[in-house]
């Protein structure tokens, strides 16, 4: 099977000269659960944002199902973005809007500006919003303001919003870094579920190696904007760990045992 | 204190490096301030010898002996709109219309004057700079001066008041709105861009909900200020109750002036209270 996502020689130099990505080449197959790890500043966020062009790469190529994302502009870029969901460490919900409106916003890429301006979503979109809210277990919060929810609930709203796009790929930029361990797992479980049940490819950056081992089918480590490791989670031993995180690093565990209850 | 650090070869933290007793900058500032005040008092030649407390007391008493003639039409040519309540209403409406007019123009301009919306393209960056400079210039011209100029253009009356007040307000509201837009959390906009939405959809869905309350709050604050300013504009040709107040003072009709002043105070205090209440709800 050919690669769903192909990244070739991707370089990103920020204004000011920071070389955040220094020649990344990767092939990701449909259905993989890729975990990105690496020190803070290693380029994880930049790589994820170059895939949907929230950040403009300096050079190199990103292809989704052989369509050149890096060359797309205007309407074509927006049609590509529709197929790529994204969730964020800070959830990035419109805090004053209702949970429902936030989820519905995930559908904007499919709808005309006119419908947006007059607040007239289609019945189909409304059905879909309720469906996705139900799916992430917060149907009862549909009419609450987004900022009235706990962190874990807000991230689930983020997932529901991204699911509205019916994406083929889901990007997640440290989705659980602002959450406590138990809540982290409850959010990761939803990502695992959409990966396994819906066959959505997940590319997710994580801070904890234990989470990477638990959820990833493949781990890619970045170091100074380059791929420092690319392989199975089980292959990361003590030596590899120190290579990625530096000699002084000590691995910390994040509890998997008690993962139940409200997020 | 500083010697502790120096003797150990450490840099002295900024907060500890100054000694208020030997710091010549502080003493210098104090000396300059005193010198300026001294020269100011000399130059102004403040003279209280001509004050006439007895006469003033008489005026104050007249101001409190309200003449209610101004509350009703006094002859067949006068209508409600020539009475003080009518002119008061005119003046309030002048403030309201001026606020609405400035809002209409400041609103679109504010987006052009918001850095986070306009940076990216060199062309939009130039527009941004231009709009912000425009706001600053417009704002820096005092309302009274604008109304005097507009009274020359439009003649004495409400037109000068409305346009003068609105003009000044475009600068004030424009700046406040722009800063509110610049203060939004970029996260939601980024997230909605990632769903494939276009720019207009992103602004509508992610930016507007964030700026709606601050905008309403700023608008009410300016409405309050404009209604407060409107009576004063009559003194320089802006029409309304201010003009009537000016005339009564010129004619030494302090019994009428006193009642007008009371009405103005009442309106301003009510506005002040109402606007504070609404803005408290919004924050
Ligand atoms: N908008 C930006 N402008 C300039 N430099 C940036 C910007 N975003 C990130 N960087 C820099 O790029 C490098 C990679 O950052 P990032 O992709 O955020 O790494 P990570 O997500 O792994 O912490 C860092 O050195 C960071 O300081
Ligand atoms: Mg990051």
Task: Describe the structure in your own words.
The complex is a heterodimer of chains A (263) and B (283). Helices cover 33% and strands 22% of the residues of chain A. Chain A is built from nine helices and ten strands. In chain A, β7, α7 (181-197) and β8 (201-205) form a beta-alpha-beta unit. The longest helix of chain A is centred in the C-terminal third of the chain and has 17 residues, at 181-197. Chain B is mostly helical and 283 residues long. Chain B folds into two domains: 2-44; 70-282, MetI-like (MetI-like fold), CATH 1.10.3720.10. Helix content of chain B is 75%, strand content 0%. Chain B contains twelve helices and no strands. Chain B has helices spanning 2-7, 24-44, 53-64, 84-112, 115-118, 122-140, 143-154, 158-182, 186-194, 199-233, 241-250, 254-282. In chain B, α7 packs across α8 (158-182) and α9 runs antiparallel to α10. Chain B is flat and about 85 Å long. Chains A and B meet through α2, β6, α4 and α6 of A and α9 and α10 of B. Residues 44-45, 173-174 of chain A line the site of magnesium ion. Adenosine-5'-diphosphate binds at residues 14, 16, 18, 20, 38, 40-46 of chain A.
């Amino acid at each position: 099977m050919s690669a769903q996502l192909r990244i070739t020689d991707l370089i990103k130099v920020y204004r000011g000269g920071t070389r955040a990505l220094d020649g990344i080449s990767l092939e990701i197959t449909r259905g993989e659960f890729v975990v990105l790890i690496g020190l803070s500043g290693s380029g994880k966020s930049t790589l994820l944002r170059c895939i949907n062009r929230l950040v403009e790469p300096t050079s190199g190529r990103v292809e989704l199902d052989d369509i050149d994302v890096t060359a797309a502009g205007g309407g074509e870029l927006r049609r590509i973005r529709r197929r790529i969901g994204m969730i964020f460490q800070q959830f990035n919900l419109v805090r004053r809007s209702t949970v429902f409106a936030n989820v519905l916003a995930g559908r904007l890429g499919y709808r005309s500006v006119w419908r947006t301006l007059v607040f007239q979503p289609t019945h189909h979109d409304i059905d879909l919003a309720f469906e996705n809210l139900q799916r992430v277990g917060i149907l009862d919060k549909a009419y609450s303001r987004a900022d009235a929810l706990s962190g874990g609930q807000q991230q689930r709203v983020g997932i529901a919003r991204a699911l509205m796009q019916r994406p083929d790929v889901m990007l997640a930029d440290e989705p659980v870094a602002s959450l406590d361990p138990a809540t982290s797992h409850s959010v990761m479980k939803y990502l695992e579920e959409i990966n396994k049940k819906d066959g959505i490819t997940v590319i997710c950056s994580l801070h904890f190696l234990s989470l990477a081992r638990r959820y990833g089918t493949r781990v890619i480590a970045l170091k100074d904007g380059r791929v420092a490791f690319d392989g199975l989670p089980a292959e990361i031993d003590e030596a590899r760990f120190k290579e990625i995180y530096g000699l002084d690093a000590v691995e910390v565990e994040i509890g998997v045992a008690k993962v139940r209850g409200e997020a | 204190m500083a010697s502790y650090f120096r003797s150990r070869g450490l840099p002295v933290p900024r907060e500890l490096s100054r000694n208020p007793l030997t710091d010549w900058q502080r003493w210098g500032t104090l000396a300059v301030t005193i010198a300026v005040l001294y020269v100011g008092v000399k130059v102004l030649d403040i003279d209280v010898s001509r004050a006439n407390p007895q006469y003033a007391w008489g005026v104050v008493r007249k101001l409190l002996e309200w003449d209610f003639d101004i509350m009703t039409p006094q002859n067949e040519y006068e209508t409600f709109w020539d009475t003080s309540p009518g002119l008061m209403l005119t003046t309030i409406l002048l403030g309201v219309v001026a606020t609405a007019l400035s809002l209409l123009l400041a609103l679109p301009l504010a987006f052009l004057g918001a850095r986070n919306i306009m940076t990216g393209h060199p062309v939009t960056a130039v527009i941004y700079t231009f709009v912000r400079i425009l706001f600053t210039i417009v704002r820096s011209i005092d309302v009274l001066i604008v109304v005097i100029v507009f009274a020359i253009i439009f003649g004495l009356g409400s037109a000068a008041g409305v346009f003068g007040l609105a003009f000044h307000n475009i600068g004030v509201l424009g700046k406040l709105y722009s800063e509110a837009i610049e203060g939004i959390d970029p996260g939601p906009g980024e997230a909605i861009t990632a769903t494939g939405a276009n720019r207009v959809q992103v602004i509508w869905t992610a930016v507007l909900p964030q700026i709606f309350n601050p905008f309403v709050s700023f608008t009410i604050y300016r409405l309050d200020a404009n209604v407060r300013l409107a009576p004063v504009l009559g003194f320089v040709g802006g029409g309304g109750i201010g003009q009537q107040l000016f005339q009564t003072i010129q004619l030494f009709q302090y019994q009428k002036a006193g009642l007008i002043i009371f009405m103005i105070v009442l309106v301003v205090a009510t506005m002040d209270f109402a606007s504070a209440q609404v803005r408290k709800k919004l924050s």
